[in-house]
Inverse folding.
């Protein structure tokens, strides 16, 4: 199991494809890993009352959110036989089509990696004080309602 430590969870703006690729590449030296599960949350251009979402601006109660994400990460290691677990979330403006959340779990076996990833994403959506303001193509805004 990876020694758990607090790390920077929040990324300014979108999580880039190169960041995701480097995260994957950094694990190829860990030969005890047999499976990874990666959840990538992407901003959709939902149509709401005849307006398309162009972007979401993410804000957070950052200190509390970091503590909650650390707690979720620690619980992930307790509940699942994980080797690695990484969580990253965007702050600021993320355009439709860009990535705003990355959860990356690694384990010896695929079921453990997949189950852990799903459970962690669900907890993040329910428990972490992060909010999104939808920015429409006409520049109007509204707070996003999670479903």
């Amino acid at each position: 199991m990876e020694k758990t430590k607090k790390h920077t969870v929040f990324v300014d703006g979108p999580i880039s494809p190169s960041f995701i690729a480097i995260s994957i590449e950094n694990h190829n030296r860990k030969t005890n890993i047999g499976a990874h599960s990666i959840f990538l949350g992407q901003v959709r251009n939902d149509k709401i009352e005849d307006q398309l979402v162009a972007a979401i601006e993410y804000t957070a109660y950052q200190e509390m959110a970091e503590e909650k994400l650390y707690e979720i990460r620690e619980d992930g290691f307790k509940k699942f036989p994980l080797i690695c677990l990484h969580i990253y979330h965007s702050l600021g403006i993320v355009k439709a089509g860009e990535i705003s959340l990355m959860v990356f779990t690694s384990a010896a076996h695929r079921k453990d990696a997949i189950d852990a990833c799903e459970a962690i994403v669900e907890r993040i959506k329910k428990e972490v004080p992060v909010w999104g303001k939808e920015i429409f193509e006409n520049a109007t805004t509204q707070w996003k309602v999670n479903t």
